[in-house]
Amino acid sequence: MHGEGMGAGLLAAFATVPGPRSRHGRRHPLPAILALATAAMLSGARSLYAIAQWGREQGSAEVRAALGITRASTPSVAALFRVFRDLDRDAFEQALGAWVRAQGLPPGEALALDGKHLRGIHGERIPGVHLVAAYAHQTGAVLDQKGGR
Asked: CA 133, CA 149: separation in Å to the nearest integer?
């Protein structure tokens, strides 16, 4: 894959997603939370708890900065839950899909579809949230996702 790179490119793409949160009490910018969650999931995180844990394990200030995290701490499970509960999923999916497509895919790339339920702190499903993703085998990229409640 080519393009701007994960950090800067994702942050720019996610800057187009409208924020579901008020300014009061907000510690992390929405693009940073979405970039961190994307990087964590690409690293194998499969729950909100695992995403938060992955974020805590990023001890390098450079890694946090590349993901748009401006504080020494990363988002908590509760913060992740609130963001993903209220997120404009269509805008998120469009931004992520546009970023992945901008990375380039070779002609004839094989795609697969996969479905998952989003899970909460202790592995319980978040009521009614289901994601379906298109995955490119050769490049290992998720091209687009569609979520529903």
From this structure: 15
